Amino acid sequence: MIELLATRYAYLLMFVLLGIGLYMTIASQNLVKKLIGVNLFQTAIFLFFVAVAYVEVDGEPGGSPVVPATENPASSDLILASPLPHVIVLTAIVVGIALTAVGLALIVRIYSEYGTLREDTLREVRADE
Q: Which region is the signal sequence (predicted)?
């Protein structure tokens, strides 16, 4: 068990971030804390994709998928990592930044309109209108 945790620490970190982000999103009443929780959750998912993309065979890490023209990857025993998960994570990071920007803009607008960021207070104010 200890050896598994020592070699797969990225998965453990991913589950910790996932749990903290989910807890912050569900349990917090403050909208900014909820947005931070969503960002932690996204970071955990990014870490998961990168950890899954890591390739290792017999203790040797996988190489870059860009192979020099002098080598023929079909004839050699090259172990190449797939670039697809990394490309997906880069795209998701851009989407996450846009989501955070829109969320912060909405939070600023909500605060200027209602004077609070607590979800329960906002529900009471909206029920009175």
A: none
- Taking Cα atoms as reference points, which of 47, 32, 45, 48 lies closest to residue 100? 32
pLDDT surpassing 90 at residue 2: no
**Which residues does 65 contact at the CB level (< 8 Å), separation at least 6?**
80, 81, 82, 83
**Residue 17 is encoded by which pair of tokens?**
């971030």
Architecture of domain 2-62+76-128 in this structure:
Orthogonal Bundle (1.10)
Which of 6-10, 23-27, 109-113 shows the lowest per-residue confidence on average (mean pLDDT)? 6-10
pTM confidence score: 0.80
